[in-house]
Amino acid sequence: MHPTIPKTQTAAIVASSGAAIQVKHDHPVKTQAELAPDLHAALGDWPIPPKSPLIGGHEGVGEIVAIGNHTTDSPVKVGDRVGIKWLAGSCLNCEQCRKGREQNCVEAKLSGYTVDGTFSEYVVSFVRHVTPIPKGLDSNAAASILCAGVTVFRALKYSQTTEGDWVVLPGAGGGLGHLAIQYAKDMGLRVIAIDSGAEKKKLCHDLGADVWIDFKTSQDVVADVKKATDGLGAHSAIVTTASSTGYTQAVDYLRCGGTLMVVGLPGKANLEASIFFTVFKSISILGSYVGNRQDAIEAIDIAARGRVKCHFELRKIDDLQKIYEDMTKGAISGRVVVNFSK
């Protein structure tokens, strides 16, 4: 073990599903992986149960301080700055991994869900799954790209759109949505941002959204989308919200041949859509689940070149319970980054 690694650390612990977050300043530092996303892990509202007790956090950036003695041909070295993603590890040898769907590996290890995550000063991860962070890209900004950014980037990649097409982004002012606006504009797409509130409206316009729709004041969201797209509807919708309403509306406002990208993960909601109009309009409905290692490298590269910037608020680890409460209320614009140096 590296001589500078302490025996204890500060970490945010969820003792069991649904329990309150506890910040401990004397939690043991692990030096090997134990095989056994943050808000959902804490609430326990997903159909796949999380590990407990659990250190949350599924996107983080830090410096490698040690590599296991028996690791061979490591692509990274001590001193490298790397990022940890939701997908902490996979077998890299099964059909899903070979086809670029590492996140669907049956042996996938999920940060802050099935293995301890990044809400700690030290974390164990896997050398072939960490993502190198380019020089010049701020660690705080890079952290949110590793899950939120990668997730929306991949969804846009597979949205079957081309330059000049219209894409609708429900929840555009949130953590995933504000990054989706920027990746969409970088791809040459025209963006319809759906969200609510003056602060989020300003953020979406500042990021380049072409059209803003406030779902709380709109009389008819579907009609507003069609009005903005010459009556034809949008080419694609990237739905990142945790509400089933966003999915139901999308089939109605998509044009013929449109693509609904299902991204948000509400724990118990069902996807309801008119079978008749899904078929009649030749609508494609595709699930898009985070991203693979290459998606992460591409998403980080775009951010490193200044074409995507994460808007975040820096907070302390002791504020984590309040952060979760604000997330539940939908009261956060952009992202919140927990910095252990604060």
Protein model, in words:
- The structure is a single chain.
- The chain is of the alpha/beta class.
- It has helices spanning 38-43, 95-98, 139-157, 177-186, 198-206, 221-228, 245-253, 275-280, 293-304, 320-329; strands at 8-14, 21-28, 54-55, 60-63, 81-84, 87-89, 109-110, 131-132, 166-170, 190-195, 211-214, 234-239, 254-262, 284-287, 312-315, 335-338.
- The chain has a six-stranded parallel β-sheet, sandwiched between helices. A three-stranded antiparallel β-sheet has the order 2-1-3, with no helix packed on it. Strands 4-5-8 form a three-stranded antiparallel β-sheet.
- Helix 3 (139-157) packs across helix 4 (177-186), helix 3 (139-157) crosses helix 9 (293-304) and helix 6 crosses helix 7.
> Globular, elongated, flat, extended or rod-shaped: what is the shape?
globular
Strand content: 15-25%
Helix tally equals: 10
How does the helix and strand content classify structurally?
Answer: alpha/beta
| Mean pLDDT rating | 87
Notable features of this structure?
single chain; 342 residues; alpha/beta; 6-stranded parallel β-sheet; 3-stranded antiparallel β-sheet; 10 helices; 16 strands; 22% strand
Helix and strand layout, with pairings?
Blueprint: E1 8-14, E2 21-28, H1 38-43, E3 54-55, E4 60-63, E5 81-84, E6 87-89, H2 95-98, E7 109-110, E8 131-132, H3 139-157, E9 166-170, H4 177-186, E10 190-195, H5 198-206, E11 211-214, H6 221-228, E12 234-239, H7 245-253, E13 254-262, H8 275-280, E14 284-287, H9 293-304, E15 312-315, H10 320-329, E16 335-338
Parallel strand pairs: 9-10, 9-12, 10-11, 12-13, 13-14, 15-16
Antiparallel strand pairs: 1-2, 1-3, 4-5, 5-8, 6-7
